[in-house]
Design a protein that fits this description.
Length: about 325
């Protein structure tokens, strides 16, 4: 009997779950566990549904971005199927750099035969516009933040993104690089796929498409910034919305840059440290707030993705083989 898609993904998910457990244990050991429990008890749990609504709003807006990119690449898919592809991909949020979300491309391959090399660049474009959005959100709060070495993270990200856009935006330069790569034996065999991937990427980073997608990303991630703001209301820190936005966006970027599954570890440590330092919140309260908002954002996304995956996995029997063995076009 062939393995189900969920069973094929199980090992990849277990790694993320195990790392998440280690992060919780590490933060608990760093703080006084009994005081941490007191912080959890002091949190106004009536806010929890609002946190989930704000997080789900993030997913909905990002779905519209995904669907917009499908239209840019002229990939025709009914809204319902598009939604299944996107929300199932959330289960791979705890993959390194979220690149496991290319699972969506495997679904597209089975649904309408879209080549993987054509649709996979959507994930790259999603991450790029997410980074741009986080930089913009950081910029909004940087004026109320204490200037320190943390700000250099923004500068590094801006330089990286600008360099990427310059290269991708020049067809002559990019195609020249691909031509040079094709001279190397192993790459020569997939040269046509690289060119297809580049054409998709080039279409998505055209100014109008980049602007629309980035604005959607700003709205999406601001929802989660608001979630942290609501969380900190329970701990009575000096946390205006601009400062909280800076903290959430910067720590999210810090986690993403590490390429760890879901940014686990780096995001939590940097967020807790920034909350304690900049929002004038006690260490145990800062850690509690961090764990609460990560549960309502990262782990809620994984849960939503898992529910949609379980509901739809029988429809996508071949996707497990594609994802585990690699797509053969």
């Amino acid at each position: 009997m062939p393995k189900s898609l969920l069973s094929r993904l199980k090992n990849k998910l277990v790694i993320g779950l195990a790392l998440g457990g280690l992060v919780f244990i590490g933060l608990s050991l760093y703080s006084d566990f009994n005081k941490l429990l007191e912080s959890f008890r002091s949190f106004h749990w009536a806010f929890a549904p609002l946190l989930l609504v704000l997080s789900f709003s993030n997913y909905i807006i990002r779905f519209f971005k995904w669907d917009y990119y499908l239209k840019v690449l002229k990939i025709h898919l009914p809204k319902r199927d598009s939604a299944v592809c996107f929300f199932t991909g959330l289960v791979m949020t705890i993959s390194p750099g979220k690149m496991g979300e290319v699972l969506k491309s495997y679904f597209l391959k089975q649904l309408n035969g879209t080549p993987f090399s054509v649709s996979a660049p959507i994930v790259v474009a999603e991450r790029l516009t997410d980074f741009l959005a986080l930089v913009i959100l950081c910029a909004g709060g940087i004026f109320v933040a204490t200037f320190s070495r943390e700000v250099w993270a923004i500068v590094i990200v801006v330089i990286f993104i600008a360099s990427f856009l310059i290269v991708i935006g020049s067809r002559k330069l990019s195609l020249g690089i691909i031509s040079l790569m094709e001279r190397w034996g192993p790459i020569a065999k997939i040269g046509h796929k690289l060119r297809a991937a580049y054409e998709s990427t080039y279409a998505m980073v055209r100014f109008r498409h980049l602007l629309v997608a980035t604005l959607l990303s700003v709205a999406a991630w601001f929802c989660e910034c608001c979630g942290l703001y609501v969380t900190l209301l329970s701990f009575q820190g000096n946390s205006g919305i601009l400062l909280v936005t800076f903290i959430y966006a910067l720590s999210t970027m810090a986690g993403a840059i590490t390429m760890l599954p879901g940014g686990l570890g780096a995001t939590e440590v940097s967020m807790a440290a920034l909350i304690a330092k900049m929002a004038d919140v006690a260490k145990n309260d800062a850690i509690a707030a961090t764990l609460i908002i990560r549960a309502a954002t990262l782990w809620f996304a994984v849960l939503v993705g898992a529910v949609v995956l379980i509901a739809s996995q029988k429809r996508f029997e071949k996707v497990g083989e594609y994802f585990e063995e690699g797509l053969k076009e």
